[in-house]
Design a protein that fits this description.
389 residues; alpha/beta; seven-stranded mixed beta sheet
């Protein structure tokens, strides 16, 4: 998001663009309590999520290499935020490059995008953003009327436009999801169970599944939220609980293993989670633990929703069997704050994600375009011309 202290230095509305340059409207700062990133032309900082909730520290990101490291280390996480930070890091580095012709700038940008995709392979948003930017760069560098300065400006503006679109998409997801949940609820106010962190800390702003919760709260129709701690990185305990308490949304933290009894005894209206990648048939990769939540929700006849932008949908994959699942280091399970808590010598399996079959998504998949049955997702997105083969 744009920080008031970091002026973006973009052309004002109504000002003509120089020859060879595309229109570049000024992004609007979003209205939100927490900001996962601060961006101004040539400058980027991220909120170091490894230090939350004890300390709010914005860490400078001076270029692509720093962004790759921060993404891999999970200082910034969440599929939409990974894509935004990765691309903005390229914008920052391009802004400071003065000694290259446009062909060299294009080569640097394309190599950087390929590198950023490798930081965390399961989350598809970075790959989709890289694909979009690659096509734009390949066309832009061939324009005969474009100078190196024009090329750099046009690519940076293209990246900056992603900020506003992500926030707008999240607000649409929140509205669509809230209205659908309320349309089937049997009570005036609803109680939601969620997993991991899908709020403003996981996106450019507002959130996906947590955006649905925010929308319900804004409507005065939210009774309570139950958030899982989300082991082993505790994104629910550290981040979701932090966002909810920061905005004074009534919430209760539970361990991952309490989800079944919570569904049995706490009058849960719906389970709403996010997604890092959704296959064409609706199978969904999300933070490990999501699959078991879907199974338990089915047993208790509680609708299970997945909220994600269309950028998280990968129609090139027929099913979740083809989604690569990242495995994280063993010490994330065996250590807490650097202290070894597991029995020495025990083996560790630490997948970061699991795959929820589309048959268990009994509520819907919520995107910025609306609320979709999993079996309708591919047709809807294809009609919107979002499929990139």
């Amino acid at each position: 998001v744009l920080s008031p202290s970091l002026p973006p230095s973009l052309p004002g509305p109504g000002l003509p663009s120089p020859p060879g340059r595309l229109p570049c409207p000024r992004p609007r700062p979003p209205l939100m309590a927490l900001q996962a990133l601060l961006y101004g032309r040539g400058r980027l900082s991220i909120l170091d999520q490894l230090q939350l909730p004890h300390r709010r520290h914005y860490r400078p990101v001076d270029g692509v290499s720093a962004a790759w490291t921060d993404i891999a280390a999970m200082r910034v996480r969440g599929a939409p935020a990974i894509a935004i930070v990765g691309c903005l890091s390229l914008a920052v580095e391009l802004h400071h490059r003065e000694d290259m012709d446009k062909e060299a700038l294009a080569s640097f940008a394309l190599e950087s995008l390929d590198y950023l995709v490798t930081a965390r392979p399961t989350a598809v948003n970075m790959a989709r953003a890289a694909q979009d930017l690659t096509q734009f760069i390949q066309l832009e560098v061939k324009r005969p009327d474009t100078t190196a300065g024009d090329f750099k400006e046009n690519v940076i503006c293209r990246i900056e436009a992603m900020l506003e679109k992500d926030i707008s998409d999240n607000r649409s997801i929140g509205s669509h999801g809230a209205q659908h949940i309320l349309s089937t609820a049997t009570t005036d106010k609803v109680t939601i169970l969620t997993h991991c962190n899908t709020g403003s800390l996981a996106t450019a702003g507002y959130g996906t599944a947590l955006g649905v919760i925010r929308s319900l709260w804004a409507l005065g129709r939210l009774e309570h939220v139950y958030c899982t701690e989300t082991r082993p990185y505790n994104q629910g305990a550290r981040l979701t609980a932090y966002e909810l308490t920061y905005e004074q949304i009534p919430a209760t933290l539970i361990t991952d293993s309490m989800a079944a009894v919570a569904m049995k005894e706490k009058h849960i209206t719906a389970v709403v989670v996010g997604a890092d990648r959704i296959a064409a048939n609706g199978d969904t990769a999300n933070k490990v633990g999501t699959y078991q939540l879907a199974i338990v929700a089915l047993h208790h006849h509680i609708p299970f929703y997945v909220a994600a932008p269309s950028q998280s949908c990968d129609l090139s994959l027929d099913s979740g069997h083809n989604i690569p699942v990242e495995e994280r280091p063993a010490n994330e399970l065996t250590h807490v704050n650097g202290v070894h808590v597991a029995a020495p010598g025990v083996g560790v399996w630490n997948p970061a994600f699991d795959i929820t079959p589309h048959s268990l998504i009994t509520g819907a998949i919520i995107t910025e375009f609306g609320v979709h049955r999993p079996q309708d997702l591919q047709e809807v997105l294809t009609e919107k011309k979002l499929h990139i083969s």
